[in-house]
Amino acid sequence: MAWLILLLAGLLEVVWSVSMKASEGFSRHLYTTITLIAAWLSFWLLGLAMRQLPLGTAYAVWVGIGTVGAALLGGLFFGEQLTLPRLACIGLIVVGVLGLKLLGGEATS
């Protein structure tokens, strides 16, 4: 269950990072509100996941999901470059996140 919560926290990180960009420096109130709510929920869920997962694993997976999602959606919605080297680096992040999941990482306490 902790991994599912962590996945949701990571997806909400994508939401708040993309909505922060869309808020244009917090000048668009709808996107600012989405940013603040999604960020709060993302942090809260990350904290819940850390009850069962080690800090390093949970944080790395959360950041990895957010980084990959934000980079891909930045290309899709904001015209940011998705060059082959950049996509290769994003792929390395995905491999790292999957590696952390496959290697376990359940807390023993």
Task: Tell me how many strands there are.
Answer: 0
Low-pLDDT regions: none
- In DSSP terms, counting alpha (H) and pi (I) runs of 4 or more, how many helices? 4
Tell me the Rg in angstroms: 15 Å
Q: What is the overall pLDDT average? A: 92
Characterize the largest beta sheet: strand count, sense, and whether it forms a barrel: none
Approximate strand percentage = under 5%
How far is the N terminus from the C terminus? Answer: 16 Å
Structural category: mainly alpha
Query: What is the general shape?
Result: flat
Order of helices and strands: HHHH
Helix content: over 70%
What can you tell me about this protein's structure?
Helix 3 (55-78) runs antiparallel to helix 4. It is built from 4 helices and no strands. The protein is flat, with a radius of gyration of 15 Å. The chain has helices spanning 2-22, 29-49, 55-78, 84-102. The protein starts with a helix and ends in a 7-residue tail after the last helix. By secondary structure, it is an all-alpha fold. The mean pLDDT is 92. It is 78% helix and 0% strand.
